[in-house]
Design goal:
The chain has 379 residues and is of the alpha/beta class. The protein has helices spanning 2-26, 85-88, 91-98, 114-123, 133-142, 186-197, 221-229, 242-249, 259-266, 281-286, 288-307, 309-318, 325-331, 343-360, and strands spanning 76-82, 105-111, 128-132, 147-155, 158-163, 176-180, 202-203, 214-218, 235-239, 253-258, 273-280, 337-341.
């Protein structure tokens, strides 16, 4: 009997030990009852970010990241400027681009020929370009809207220079031959409008008039500048800084007429607006934030040029905008640099001016005053 009881006790103890061993083995199981059956462990907040975690707003800003909604990668921008006053305001931006201090990457070119810069915009060599205001309008009409305007950068910069002292009013130009830069651009149409509005007949290479009161001969500004500085020309209309260079180089030449004042005296409407910035519509559509960044940097550039003309003058010579820094330094205050952006603001300034040009010669703006779509606005 005692043996039988002892065997029962041993058997019970064995079962108890087996039961304890089974419970201890359960603690090694990965399934504690809370693990999802799909095997995807829920995030306990300590899971490392694999790069796909949404930004919680605490990501440090290195100063070069565009604001929300802008392109996250720099854009390559091919930017061209006309030499002379239209290009002066861009030199600070050019310097910063060369030093890689801009978010976007700029390739900047200085171009002396209006036709070259027009061709570059049309064929895509240039994305953005500083051009004459009437050229921008003509390109818009010629390309059926492929070119738009994004800023105004230059107001009136034209002066009639005389070697002598016989011209003190527009009427005094009667019976004279005047050399002028800017055939097919603002200078031609501004000069013709002022002359005809003052009752003078005009003969030009493209519109020859027998026995005209004033004979106009067109040539490149640099050629006229050189000839007048040498005393070979007695009367010319030139933009700053070419006009400035002549006055420095030939003390017998004086500034006879400020054409901005003569334009205003006619009260025909519109501010004399010489230079602007145009953009390829396709580029602007694909890169609207890059255009906005450009405008911000370009406005700062114009302000920097006006604030420090000494340094800006050195840059003008360095980048081929003006031949000599001394000429640029003296010319910058007379370059009428400005910055107007925004579709409504630009249109309010330019449209009356375009209407005057159109009324005088429809070809000056490409056959029609540009419509609302010409004035770029960020979507």
């Amino acid at each position: 009997m005692k043996k039988f009881v002892l065997l029962l006790l041993i058997f019970a103890l064995t079962l108890s030990l087996a039961s304890c061993a089974g419970k201890n083995g359960d603690n090694d199981s990965p399934d504690d009852g809370n693990t999802p059956v799909d095997g995807n462990t829920p995030d306990d907040g300590n899971t490392p970010d694999d790069g796909n975690t949404p930004d919680d707003g605490n990501t440090p800003d290195d100063g070069n990241t565009p604001d929300d909604g802008q392109e996250s990668q720099p854009v390559q921008v091919n930017f061209a400027v006309l030499t002379g006053p239209t290009g002066v305001g861009a030199v600070d931006l050019w310097e910063k681009a060369d030093a890689k201090e801009t978010f976007d990457t700029y390739t900047v070119s200085a171009v002396a020929d209006n036709s070259q810069i027009q061709a570059g915009l049309i064929n895509g060599d240039y994305d953005i370009a500083a051009v004459a205001t009437n050229v921008a309008a003509a390109l818009y009409n010629k390309t059926e809207g492929q070119i738009q305007i994004i800023a105004i950068n230059t107001l009136g910069v034209l002066y009639v220079l005389e070697k002598g002292d016989s011209v003190h009013s527009v009427a005094d130009l009667k019976g004279k031959t005047i050399y002028s830069a800017g055939q097919g651009a603002n200078p031609e149409y501004v000069l013709t409008h002022i002359l005809t509005a003052n009752g003078l007949t005009v003969s030009t290479p493209t519109n020859e008039v027998a026995d005209a009161d004033v004979n106009v001969i067109f040539d490149d500004a640099s050629v006229i500048q050189t000839k007048m500085a040498a005393g070979e020309i007695e009367l010319a209309m030139l933009p700053v800084p070419a006009a400035t260079a002549v006055l420095i180089q030939n003390q017998d030449v004086r500034s006879a007429l400020d054409m901005t004042k003569e334009w205003d005296a006619l009260q025909s409407g519109g501010q004399l607006t010489m230079g602007c910035v145009a953009v390829r519509a396709e580029f602007a559509k694909n890169n609207p934030d890059a255009v906005v960044r450009f405008l911000e940097e370009y406005e700062k550039s114009i302000e920097a040029v006006k604030a420090d003309p000494d340094h800006a003058a050195q840059l003008c010579e360095q980048y081929g905008i003006v031949p000599k820094a001394a000429i640029a330094k003296r010319a910058i205050p007379d370059c009428s640099l400005t910055f107007v952006a925004g579709a409504e603001e630009i249109r309010a300034t330019l449209e009356p001016y375009y209407q005057v040009l159109f009324d005088a010669n429809p070809a000056s703006v490409g056959g029609a005053v540009p419509d609302e779509a010409f004035y770029w606005a960020k979507p």
